[in-house]
Amino acid sequence: MGKKQLPNIIFLLCDTLGAKHLSLYGYHRATTPNVERIVEQGQFAVYKRCFSPASWTIPSHASFFTGLYPSEHGVDDDHVYFPDNYYCLAEILKNQGYRTYGVSANGLVSRLLNFDRGFDAFYEMWHLFNSKDFFAPNQLFGRSKKQVEGELQRFALLLKITFSNGNYLFTLKKMVDTLYKKIYGIPQMIDKSSLATLRAFWTSRMILAKTDPHTPFFLFLNVMEAHNQYNPPRKYNHFIKIDSGTKKRLMEKYEWQHYALAPFSREDFELLTLLYDQEVLFLDTLIGNFYSFLEERNLLKNTIFIIASDHGELIGEHGHCSHMFTLYNELLHVPLIFRYPHDFGIHGEISRLVQLHDIFATILEIVESPFPVPDSSQSLLSAPREFAVSESIHCNRPIRKLKTKNPSFILQEFMQPYNAVITKDMLKIIRRADGQTELFDLNSDLYETHELSDSPAYAQQKMKLLQFLEEV
Amino acid sequence: MIAGGSSLDKALIEMSLEDKEQYSKKIMYDVREKYGDDVAIAFSGGKDSTTLLHLVKAAFQEKIPWRVFTIDTGAEFQEIIDFVHKISTEWGFRLITLRNEEAVKSAFPKDRAECCFTRKVIPVNKAITDYRLKALLTAVRWDEHDARTGDLFFTEREYPAHIRVQPLLHFREIDVWAYLKKYSVPYCILYKKGYRSLDCDPCTRKFGAPGPERNGRDQEKDSAMKRLREAGYF
Prior knowledge:
The structure holds 2 protein chains of 2 kinds.
Chain A: E1 8-14, H1 33-41, E2 45-51, H2 57-66, H3 70-73, H4 89-95, E3 99-104, E4 121-124, E5 139-140, E6 143-144, H5 151-165, H6 168-184, H7 186-191, H8 193-210, E7 217-223, H9 244-252, H10 256-260, H11 266-296, E8 303-308, E9 314-315, E10 321-322, H12 329-332, E11 336-339, E12 348-355, H13 358-366, E13 387-392, H14 396-405, E14 418-423, E15 427-432, E16 437-441, H15 459-471
Parallel strand pairs in A: 1-7, 1-8, 2-12, 3-4, 3-7
Antiparallel strand pairs in A: 2-11, 5-6, 8-11, 9-10, 13-14, 14-15, 15-16
Helix pairs in contact in A: 1-11, 5-6, 8-11
Chain B: H1 10-13, H2 17-35, E1 39-42, H3 47-59, E2 67-71, H4 78-91, E3 95-98, H5 101-105, H6 112-130, E4 135-137, E5 154-157, E6 162-165, H7 173-182, H8 219-223, H9 225-230
Parallel strand pairs in B: 1-2, 1-4, 2-3, 4-6
Antiparallel strand pairs in B: 5-6
């Protein structure tokens, strides 16, 4: 495939957006009217049975960037750094002649953890300027924070260096960026995600408006709107109008309070669900606006547009919240919406079993890349998967977090690593590290309310799945 | 004859794959003309040396005219060992396994560079002497490591005296994969398991540090690259 024929690729990753909460996927509230409209107009393929290989950001991102399962790439809470010794999507596309752009509103999908690998430009929404000079948060001109205690000392050093080398513009930008981070740093990406989401879309528009039309581009965009805290703009109150006191109570101690102090009540989770749904509705509006921009600028002609999520969210289901433990489908079942070039003729609802990191093999196939594709990633254009695997290989990070919040917190039985297999017949087995298993028939019970381990009717399938788990 | 060449020649890097292949073959024909049979090829089973070996085969009507060495360090991945022997059988050449028996029997030294020296450099240098080789072909590329950007296609080595020939210097990483794909050349299955750069098992880390292609390998050893190469390393 010649360089000019290569399709542009836009990959919109909506962090923490579970398929369960999308009306496009059958949710009872109308959370995604705009996405439904563009899916119809743009002739998208909607993969109804897509499962993430991991339940949280870092392993999931590492998986779709490499095509590997978490146990293969090893990136998880004890190894958060995205290593160089396997090929990653942006790097491969750059090698193929693409101009590669990354826009991230997630503090973990960052330069610090090497997720900018392969991107020509990588924009972090917690920085005002896109410059590698603003990276290395614990460093100031090669000196660690320990060597330069206190902000005043750091400021003095910055001025000293400025006057010695005359780089006034850098210093000015550095100071402005530091102030910006005070108001809008990584914590605010979560607390006040709406502004970061708006800025991420705006940045993407700016990039696309200026990109060379003769060079194919790859744009990866991570937005954190659906991630807790659930805090959409005030005018997005279609599902619930909540007083600020209640909202503050729910948000302040969300997650750690549930596990480490006192569980949320059913009523609390109902309110949280409504807030989450409003986040989804807000995000849906922005996706619709972004799509309109692409149409207006005629940027869709030879463009693959992917909308997906790295994992979903538990809001009280199975007694859990957030995305810290377990491998239930509230976490694994994610949207995957693919707009292929028109001549591919692939659109509409697709019910084959797929995994999020199949994006890797699919893109490599479309761009006719010579780089090797791991067996773990299977192109959406080739034969369907026989099974899907998901893994939670560590859970030390959330346990540590809970312990810092409540030192007397007692470790609970479910706080263990897990793996899960889903067959193409939609049977699912989840196995905990201590050997406890759960079996579900997803054909009639996608979100796992009827456990079937002891059901004689499923005894044979259970044996097979257990054997299969041993093999994988 | 192609001269030693200048280091990291951009014009060569920007050539089409077809032109790169021809350039490499021309080097091989020059080697054949000048050194005859007194030549060997180093074959590790990695993507680069597989490409090199296939190019030699293609240059000489499917018959590899020189000895093919592989090194048994006692620490290779089983997948690499299997692959090297499979290629030897399928492509019909006799594989000569080089081994420093004494080193292989002993424990791994803490110093990785020392380990590489005793298990790789010493047996290769001994083979060059024993077989009275005039040239050794290796699959080094300019873009795989900073220490290699200054390399030449032909380099005189002193201890033991021979010419080190590097016909793939101008291939980029993508060219190697494009070549393997173009000719449907088999490659080691470890690349299908996520590895990007292969060394012996203990020195190949999937969970590596930031940097270029070879960073999946042991960094202590790679930082000692200059010293190792002076002693005869690839």
